[in-house]
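Model: Ready when you are.
Researcher: Fold this.
Model:
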Amino acid sequence: MSFNYYLSGDLILSFDLELVMIEIERKFLVKSDAYKDEAFQETRIVQGFLNTHKDRTVRVRVKGDLGFITVKGLSSKNGLSRFEWEKEITKDDALKLLNLCEKGVIDKTRYDIKAGNHIFEVDEFFGDNEGLIIAEVELESENETFEKPTWLGEEVTGQIKYYNSQLSKHPYNTWKS
């Protein structure tokens, strides 16, 4: 996908998004709390969405003492990769922007766990998503191999209902079995 920016009809910026900011990740459900014993970091995260359009989401996040604004594009057909741009902002600015977000704030604790050459981020959700625990691992390529911890459960990569933007609109407690 190419991005072109025009000012007064003149092309001033052009680049290939695939070469710039693509996130490749796989998502899994978590089948036990053994990950907590392996975590080297634990951070509370509160996030909301300024936009949850199917082609793009705009997220505001408070992660510990930091703020972030993130734009994510449409996922690939297999759900493994998509455009992602993130910028750190002040926590105060993020808290103000959270007031403008769509209904459905996500509240979770993130545990970072090293497994082999990768870092798994395990999110334990609260509020309307209480009981849901998802692990994500970012990869350099879609076919990269990685060590799977024993607590890793069913893969849910590409299942839209597990995207945070969807969990904010259709919480886990409304559809869990």
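Researcher: Now this one.
Model:
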Amino acid sequence: MRKHIILLFFFMAGLIVSGINPRNIFHWIGEALPAIIGAVILIRTYNKFSFSMFTYIFILFSCYLLFLGAHYTFSRVPYFDWPGSLFGYNRNNFDKFGHFFQGVIPVLISRELFIRKEIVKGKGLVSFLAFCVAMTTAAVYELIEYIACSIADKNPVTFLGTQGYVWDSQSDMLFALIGALFAIWILKYPHDRSMSRVKIPPYRKDGQKQC
């Protein structure tokens, strides 16, 4: 519980610092809102199901990426111009880094729910369904961004961070795909170890705690 409170403190600190003199206040609200909604959901469901520290730390790191993008706008985050220059084009690639973790986080969350609540049996099926959850999340996020931008009548170059790249949405989902595979193939081992150390046992289907 103490460790979780510390993580919540760092979340609130990151949110507050991000909201100090952002480049565009409406952009900040739009980009920080998913992190805020996610935090509220995790807090409201904490007594019923608490995730492993491994998952919580990755969620916090992903929120910090959202806070950075919200503060500067995703196409203007400092120090992320160099990856594009290596391949001969001028583009800030912070958004691709963020979408990579957009694939990682849904895999970690869904794996933990599937395994600890015994929703899915079989390692292969768990990995496949977690991958499907990640790709569905990435696709829905792109649609939500487009709809929000259209309703607000905002410049998509600024809000969506396309930077003139016609395949931006598709490449965003590609990086989410790579992140999902990274979580399934590489992170599953430390993730499993972290889940094995969770002191609060998962709930059975009948709603009672396991002994």
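Researcher: Key takeaway?
Model: The chain has eight helices and no strands.
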